[in-house]
User: What shape does this take?
Amino acid sequence: MQQEAILLRTEQIAPNTRHFVFEVKGIPQFDFVPGQFVSLTEEFEGKPITRAYSIASLPDGNRFELCVNEVAGGRFSPHLFRMTPGESVPMRGPVGTFTLRSLERDALFVATGTGVAPMRGWLLHALGQKASGRFQLLFGVRQEENLLYRAEFEGLAGQHENFQFAPTLTRPSSHWTGRTGRVQEHLDELLGARRDLDIYICGLKDMVNSVREELKTRGFDRKQIIVEKYD
Assistant: This one.
């Protein structure tokens, strides 16, 4: 069923990336499972265009939050970036099965760019529920300024012994003292000899495919590897 999502506010959280807060018009409660997505639709020159965006938040009344990159030369993301509070966009959802399977089972989350959005929702849920599983977030971006939700993830890592935040940069400045290189280069560090945990991967399809193949060569069963990818 199509509904209307009303923009409440936006926040610039990195160059060309914004955090959006919407509410669903006419209903008191918008229920979803963290990690699901919504589809937004708009007409451009008489032709409808639909884009899917992972929800980056927990259920909160009739609200949901998105993390969106403005795509140069694109149509839909620039349209969202031009919206002002009070304007609305047609939406459908929630849908999707890229959700956290267990609060008790240890897991490694691997994300690049806005692929971290669904994992933000998982972590807020799991850590808020005092999950017994241990979670690691391996998050790859180009530069330090692209580390979406960095302060929040660092805060969660400081508050919860069962969560480790592991960012890595492919284009670090001379001041960066953390991990560098692609996420693939840090799998051995974070996994060690363990093969008894689940791996969730989200980001551009080339990264997702590469990490999945590397995990298979390490002996992980395909059922332990849960992915969501986009172009």
In short: Residues 205-217 form the longest helix (13 residues). Residues 107-230 form a domain with the Rossmann fold fold (CATH 3.40.50.80). Helices lie at 76-82, 117-128, 150-159, 187-191, 205-217. The mean pLDDT is 96.
